[in-house]
Amino acid sequence: MNIRQIIRQKRRQLSPVERNIAQQAIYQQIFHHQAINTAKNIAIFLSFDGEVETTPIIEYLWQQNKSVYLPIIHPFSSTHLLFLKYTSETQLIKNKFGIFEPKLNVLNVFPYHQLDIVFTPLVAFDQRGYRMGMGGGFYDRLLANYQTQQILPIGLAFACQKVQHIDNKPWDIKLPQIIYA
Ligand SMILES: Nc1nc2c(c(=O)[nH]1)N(C=O)[C@@H](CNc1ccc(C(=O)N[C@@H](CCC(=O)O)C(=O)O)cc1)CN2
Ligand SMILES: Nc1ncnc2c1ncn2[C@@H]1O[C@H](COP(=O)(O)OP(=O)(O)OP(=O)(O)O)[C@@H](O)[C@H]1O
């Protein structure tokens, strides 16, 4: 097994109690986070494969009148993501990876550079903020120029996903913040 598979398995194997305790601590950090509370347009993701459960975060953001967006795999350029507005009315369909995403309606596509916060999924991360994702390069491409666009990417993870050192490649982006517990 490679490191990606090992950490994915560790993440799936967290017990319900461990998962719950960690998630409550993560949610508390988010609910008290200055940049999140002052943001307007926030991209997040729907969890799969044992990722931190994002539904309570989304509920909180809706309550705070934030606009929430979810990634979809770009229909004509399958290496890129698009962000679509997510409301309680949004129709969800499973993408080719088995992850739920909003049904494409061009009216709901939101320009990436207008996002304030991008919650970023990850498989493994290190102290420096380097991350390893699912291997598609989606978030590395997406966030390549985040610093010039006033976007704040925030990684979300369990403590068991932290590793000593990510052997980072030239295209790997370093996350300025990772919320984990
Ligand atoms: N919740 C969530 N949504 C997300 C991501 C994520 O990491 N988490 N992504 C972050 O980039 C993108 C999806 N990236 C993915 C890349 C590879 C695989 C995957 O399971 N690959 C299979 C083999 C390929 C296949 O089935 O076609 C595997 O690893 O077994 C899944 C998602 C967009 N949406
Ligand atoms: N900024 C970029 N421009 C062009 N290609 C890129 C870029 N970032 C990543 N890639 C390509 O994507 C592929 C997958 O990258 P990598 O294994 O680092 O993905 P990952 O970080 O694990 O996945 P993700 O970002 O989707 O969570 C690499 O082969 C790389 O060539």
Automatic annotation (TrEMBL):
It comes from the Bacteria. One of its GO terms (molecular function) is 5-formyltetrahydrofolate cyclo-ligase activity. It catalyses: (6S)-5-formyl-5,6,7,8-tetrahydrofolate + ATP = (6R)-5,10-methenyltetrahydrofolate + ADP + phosphate. It is an enzyme of class 6 (ligase). Its cofactor is Mg(2+). SUPFAM superfamilies: NagB/RpiA/CoA transferase-like. This is 5-formyltetrahydrofolate cyclo-ligase. It comes from Gilliamella intestini. The lineage of its organism: Bacteria, Pseudomonadati, Pseudomonadota, Gammaproteobacteria, Orbales.
